[in-house]
Every structure is written in C-alpha cells, then in structure tokens.
# Entry
Amino acid sequence: MNMRDEYDIKSLNPRRNPYADKLKKQITIRLNAGTIEYFKQQAEETGISYQNLINMYLTDCAVHEKKLEYTIK
# Structure
C-alpha cells in the first residue's frame, strides 16, 4: 500500500468550507510608525495582539460604515 493512499481525501467526499468567506486574508500595508506604536501600547494593556487590535478597529469602522473626517491642509 502506498502511503499516499492513506491520505486520499477524495474518498472522504470533501465539501467547501462554509466559513471560507469569513477567514482573514493576509495583505501588506504601510502604517505610520506612531500608529503601530499606539496599537502596540494598547496590546500591552489589553493582552490582545496589536495586529488583532488593528483588525478589530478596522472591522468596527467597516461594520458601522464610519466615514473619515479630514481636511486637506
């Protein structure tokens, strides 16, 4: 018996992951050093990683459809 035969998932009748649309997607983003430091300080205080804090903040903005208020100087 070939070792690969033991791991043939086709015989398990696989189906699409129903949560695939909810998974995180890795991207590259450039953030100001001060912004990163702010979230790292928050991470120390909360025990939540700074990446997760940034994700949580951006998710909250998206869910509540917050618009950025800014003026061009």
Observations:
- The mean pLDDT is 87.
- The CA atoms of residues 61 and 70 lie 15 Å apart.
- The chain has three helices and no strands.
- Residues 24-64 form one domain.
